Amino acid sequence: MITLKLNKTMLVCTLVMFIANSAIATVQSEPMISLSGSGHNISFSGAGFLPTDSTCNVSSPSSVGVILSSACVVQAGTGTPYGGFTVGNVSPGSYVIQVTGNYGDFAQAIVEVNGGSSLSSSGHVTNQAGSRVSIQATGLLPTDTTCELSSPSSPNVIFPGTAPCVIQSGTGVA
């Protein structure tokens, strides 16, 4: 009778250990990414991706144009992607950014685009007809190739043909 009771106890212990080991072996963390940066260049880092991932891709399910260019690298065997992207010429708003590993695992984060261009004047405005004013604009998209100077509040303040605008290619400065 002792042999039968001992075998039952061993069978139950073995079953409990098997179930416990099975539960531990199937636990996997959820992939995640975090975004950082400002302006048009955003970087990201991730965690919890499959350690078998060897490549990754950056995309936006919410807008095709929000990512102008991107780079994504996975550190071999770690499930840790990192990289960055340049924000394209899109309207201000919230956009979903998705990083996908080559085995289909992915994580998403939201990037807020707020426009961000600024304008500064370098010269004294005299309120007289014929006054010359120099303007420099910064924070424009680095992909902008042309610009135009206008005055929505008073269209006649700029004499036609006297407002040339030039952008330094790739800088976002006009």
Output the structural class. Answer: alpha+beta
Distance between the termini: 94 Å
**CATH class of the largest domain, please?**
Mainly Beta
Radius of gyration: 29 Å
What does it look like?
The protein is built from one helix and nine strands, in the order αβββββββββ. The termini are far apart. The chain has 174 residues and is α+β, with helices and mostly antiparallel strands. The protein has one helix at 2-25; strands at residues 32-38, 41-47, 56-59, 67-75, 80-87, 93-101, 106-113, 118-121, 135-138. The chain is elongated, with a radius of gyration of 29 Å. Strand 6 (93-101) and strand 7 (106-113) form a beta hairpin. The chain has two domains: 32-113, Immunoglobulin-like, CATH 2.60.40; 117-174, no CATH class. 15% of the residues are buried. The strands form three sheets. A four-stranded antiparallel sheet has the order 1-2-5-4, with no helix packed on it. It has a three-stranded antiparallel sheet with strand order 3-6-7, with no helix packed on it. The model is unreliable at 23-27 and 117-128 (pLDDT under 50).
